[in-house]
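Lecture notes, part 5. Sequence design as translation. It can be helpful to think of inverse folding as translation between two languages: the language of shapes and the language of residues. The source text, in structure tokens, appears below.
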């Protein structure tokens, strides 16, 4: 955890460079609650780009596993939050020459905890729905280009993600046919830029 310059934000950092978890302060009373989900100036100061160009939302049923996706060229940074339900969110560093290449981080995001996860450009992303359903909202730093989307196999033994235990996992045909990280040519991976 690192100190935030803002009293209404708690910032958590990880071993994986540039991955940031934001815990916003929630103002609640008998009427309900209020929280700030995006503030360009504040988020830029804590290391999150201010140049988001596209907002997305996905709805998934329990046990749906999506990922591991990334876009290259035109990599996307993503700021995620869960509007309904609960997910296990996974970020994998796939930047060439990164000191944490192939390493991953797992975070539980839910409508209840209201945490946000910033996944920088150069990471693969996936999630598993733990609740009956989940509504996930995310802001992207780049537009979506279907021809640039790539999929790493969700259970690649080289990465060895510890997914939450569920009776089964519902995975699309496309995601079942993902490549192992070692099968993806260097030309198809983003470069690590030392900050």
């Amino acid at each position: 955890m690192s100190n935030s310059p803002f009293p209404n934000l708690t910032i958590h950092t990880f071993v994986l460079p540039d991955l940031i978890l934001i815990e916003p302060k929630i103002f609640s009373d008998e009427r309900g609650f209020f929280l700030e989900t995006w503030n360009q100036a504040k988020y830029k100061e804590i290391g999150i780009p201010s140049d988001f160009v596209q907002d997305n939302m996905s709805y998934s049923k329990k046990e749906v596993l999506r990922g591991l996706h990334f876009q290259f060229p035109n990599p996307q940074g993503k700021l995620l939050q869960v509007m309904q339900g609960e997910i296990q969110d996974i970020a994998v560093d796939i930047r060439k020459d990164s000191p944490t290449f192939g390493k991953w981080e797992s975070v539980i995001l839910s409508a209840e905890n209201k945490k946000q996860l910033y996944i920088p450009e150069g990471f693969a992303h996936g999630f598993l729905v733990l609740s009956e359903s989940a509504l996930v909202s995310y802001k992207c730093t780049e537009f979506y280009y279907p021809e640039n989307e790539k999929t790493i196999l969700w259970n690649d033994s080289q990465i060895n993600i510890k997914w939450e235990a569920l009776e089964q996992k519902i995975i699309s045909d496309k995601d079942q046919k993902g490549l192992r990280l070692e099968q993806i040519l260097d030309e198809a991976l983003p470069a690590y830029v030392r900050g």
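The translated text above is only one of many valid answers, since several sequences can fold into similar shapes. The mean pLDDT is 91.
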